[in-house]
Amino acid sequence: MGLMSLTAVELGKKIKEGSVSVRDAALASLESIKKSEDLLHSFVTVLDEDAILARAAEVQEKIDRGELTRPLAGVPVAIKDNMCTEGVLTTCSSKILANFKPVYTAEAVRNLEKAGAVMIGKTNMDEFAMGSTTETSAYGITRNPHNTEHVPGGSSGGSCAAVAAEQCPYALGSDTGGSIRQPSSFCGVTGLKPTYGTVSRYGLIAYGSSLDQIGPVAKDVTDCAAILETISSYDEKDSTSVKRDDLDFTSGLVNNVEGMRIGIPKEYIGEGLDPQVRDAVLNAAGILAKRGAVVEEFDLSLVEYAIPAYYIIASAEASSNLARFDGVKYGYRTKQYEGLHNMYKKTRSEGFGAEVKRRIMLGSYVLSSGYYDAYYLKALRTKALIKEAFDRAFETYDVILGPAAPTTAPKIGESLSDPIQMYLGDIYTVSVNLAGLPSICIPCGKDDKGLPVGLQLIGNCFEEKTIIRAAYTFECSAEMR
Ligand code: GLN
Question: Of 36, 112, 457, 479, whose CB has the highest number of CB atoms within 10 Å?
Fold first, then answer.
């Protein structure tokens, strides 16, 4: 068994014991990337081998001196390419950032580095995290390791494919409307979106600032808990960062759901859901019920309004956030132009892809003076109602269970031609972001094509440990790995 088939925590243990060196772990990751990268294309950038080995030596020394003792010390990691990494190309998979080397590192990545992580590379994604397939990247598509004719999902498709293909033990992704959970579902890996404000957004290139959260992508629940524990922190540099004194997420790794109340929204298992996905998800619910959870169906209202509200709010925020890419301070600038206005126009026309332009136009429209009340304000009100609906549900239930996506991974090329249809695929994930809730996606089966199905477990705000407990119990019972 190769080193890359270990989980991050297992590999970290071996490194600490001294049976595996940090250098060998890094080399194993590079070797695996070399073997499969031409086919999969999970990465935009793989770091230079010398730089990786120098970092590995530095970490090894600190481990040997007893200065690094946490579970992930020495373990290689891949980072989604929308997190700033000092001196390392950070493109957001966009042409407009083709030459962007940040002068600082995102706080979540810094937290990993402080714990002794060894960064291997930056993963491919939908351009500016807008998309559900990793096909909108300016640097080519990523393929699903389970079947390379299919997409890995998106937008954190590179991170999820890299973990699924064992190119590295774990990765970071970001989730604005499902971008950790949906590709985790498609790639058969475990991904967690934390409560809004738990992981600092400092250095995460903003898409929808009120929705964005960084989170772990890994092989199992134990890894997710350990990674989340490492990356979360209160950060003064992020005005929405929350001070929490319950960041010991690994204490949620308890194999017991006796008496836990689990609700399944009827709307999540009805029309539009692939029957094979439904069967796998309901089977998982049955396993949790057998372990002593009280599982029942209930009505979660407003589900049909989540997609329109999300796409209005996310696009509005994106149109504002992306105004900074103008060819002046950093990033791509058009080669030939006449005057400042023409430079802006040509830079942005050439630098952004079609999906990003669509969102900027939609966002500018819903924020324009004549339409602000009719669209943007209405969407904000809907968001508040969705939060209320979840608040009511969590009076009765500890966890909300459902699928992460209505289907398994579609074929490459099937989704982009009909953006509305693609947006509808986000039905089970976006309300979680609108309400700021934590949610985990874990593998719960496969369809008849051998493509993975993901189970989504949603918790109330700050209840990561509850969903970690439910997911861990399911994992222990189902023996998925
Ligand atoms: N598919 C959604 C979108 O395109 C979600 C993206 C995300 O979570 N970053 O907006």
Answer: 457
